Amino acid sequence: MILSSHIITASAVAAPLLSRPLNFANATLIFFVSFLSHFALDALPHWDYKMSSFPKENGERLFVCKTSFFIKDLAKNFLDCFAGIAAAIFIIGWPQNFFGFLAFGLIIFGSILPDALEALFVIKKWRALEPLHKFHFAIHGKRIFQNQPFWGVISQILIIVLIVFIFNRFLKI
After folding, report:
1. Separation of alpha carbons 163 and 100, rounded Å
2. d(CA 128, CA 2)
3. Quick one: angle between helices 24-42 and 130-139, nearest 10?
4. Could you tell me the CA-to-CA distances from 97 to 17, 21, 63, 71, 93 in Å, in that order?
5. Are 119 and 136 in contact (CB under 8 A)?
6. pLDDT truncated to tens, each residue of the chain (173 aa)?
7. By the 8 A CB rule, do 30 and 110 touch?
């Protein structure tokens, strides 16, 4: 899924935890709920925009980084992330104090960290990240709408609306 989908989902799922005081246990819970929501979302069939920096051949990612496309891909990711942050503010509101900003940051950081670590693994080939890479690859939805952006975007919107509706309706965010 795209970054904004991960941020929006993590915001909806972690929002009920924001009513509690932000101590170490609650901060850890907010982070891990956001982190794990990433993998739950990736398990669903979805669409990802093309990352020219990390090419694919026959549907399989080549573990190389083409630096000539890196700035374009980085800009695409920043715009995607900012769209997700804007939607998260809409869902959970603007943080009112330092602890609110900290919790908000934990949600965003936790929700996109698996993809950041995946990119780091592809670029740097750090063996310490290999188990996470293998888990991320294994959990990732096998039916990705890569060449069908219309249906991929529609499916992501429907999934996100459903998740936000469920957490808003039943968990009173």
Report:
1. 22
2. 25
3. 50
4. 16, 12, 42, 34, 12
5. no
6. 789 999 999 999 999 999 899 999 999 999 999 999 999 998 887 777 777 666 555 555 555 556 667 788 888 889 999 999 999 999 899 999 999 999 999 999 999 999 999 888 877 888 899 999 999 888 886 666 667 778 878 888 888 899 888 887 666 54
7. yes
